[in-house]
Structure formats: structure tokens, C-alpha cells
Amino acid sequence: MIAIEPSRALFERTTERLAAYFGLPSLDPALSWQRAGRIIAARLVLALAREQLVDAELRGGALVLAGGTALPLRSVRALELHDPELTEPRASVLEHPVSAWQQLAASIALPEGARERIATELADGVPRLALAVWVAAMRQRHRGLIMRPYPSPLDGEDLVVVGHPWHPMAKTRLGLGWAENLRHAPELFGVAPIAAIELPSADVHVHGDAIELLRPWLGAPAPEHVRIPVHRAQLARLL
Length: 239
Description:
Layout: H1 8-21, H2 29-50, E1 56-59, E2 62-65, E3 70-75, E4 83-84, H3 97-104, H4 112-141, H5 178-184, E5 194-200, H6 210-218, E6 225-231, H7 232-238
Antiparallel strand pairs: 1-2, 2-3, 3-4, 5-6
Helix pairs in contact: 1-4, 2-3, 2-4, 3-4
């Protein structure tokens, strides 16, 4: 199986430290880990069926794939956004998303490198989604929990726990370190400090009055340059 980075052990240590930092009793991280894996595995199965990459049909309250693999469904919904049953351990395909991918990818014509890349992306999403699920459960248990160093207006992205409903890799963030994920992920109440970089005017296509609208916040650029905003996490990668 593909090694999961960040690891489950790192995820569990993080939950322990967050709970201790806020002086609150922790919730069992194993439940969040299991739920995250099942969400991603179920989305993978649904996506492969929806995009007709594997043969599948709705039968007996389940999405049944060629070969007999079945994903139990709580309900059948429009746009093939079916609601999978995640609490019953009767679907072996839900054991782990990488295992599900390795099982189902055998019938899909893909180069080996592409198969491994997809497995890596699925694995990367598990600990990140697990942490989002755990934080959401802690917020539900401890109403009024503030996880930012300063008050901020309500942001809809704070409430997005599992990401886009069609996307099995909604929390995959390859290249973003675990500490960066903690600092910047909106579902973890991350902060998004904005920096500015200057580029030669000839290298930038400006639409409308965007640059003028940004000037009060970013300041005036050098002559024949424009100043554009970037996320602070991008800055070291751009310079």
C-alpha cells in the first residue's frame, strides 16, 4: 500500500496537541480517520461510475460494480450525487481509498505512473480530511470554540468540511506541508496573510481596473511595474 504522508500517527499527535492547547477533552481521532477514509473511498467509487470508467449499475439499494463490488447507498439522488452508507462495515471497498483504487484501477487502461500518482493523491487526502472531520466534531461538541488568534467575520469556507461532493481528492494538497495545512486550511480556521510582488508591466495582463482597486492595500509599485497579491505560502515558491 502507498505510504500515507502525513502519517496517521502525525494526525493523532496533532489532535492531542490541539485538544491540550484549548484545554478540552479530545474526541477519538480513530473515528475521524475511519470516516475520512470511507468518504474518500465512496467518492472514488461514485466518481468512477459516474464518469463511466468502470461498469456499474444501481441494484438493491447499492451501486454494484462489475465483479460484484458493491457500495451501499442511503439514498439515490439527482446528478448521480448518491448518498453512500458509511457507517455499516459491509462494504469492503470502503476499507481504504488506496485499496479501493488498486482494486478498481485494474480495469482502467492507465500508465503505471498515472495509477501511482492517483494513489498518492488519494493517500494525501486522508489525514487532511480526517483532521477537518475531527475539528468539525470538536466545534460541534464545544460550541463557541474559537480557533483563530483573532476574531474574524464569518467565512463560508470555514464551514466546508468535506469539500466538493463530486471530488474524491477535495482535501488533497500535495506540496503543502502539514504545518502549512494547519496554518492555512480554511476548514481549520487558517489565516491567509497576503503579500505583494512586483512584476514588469509588460509581463502582466491587467483586466479592467484591478490594479487601481488593489493600490490602497498593496501600495504603489515601482515605475513600469505592477504589484499583485499572492498568498504568503506562495511567496517563497515564487521568489
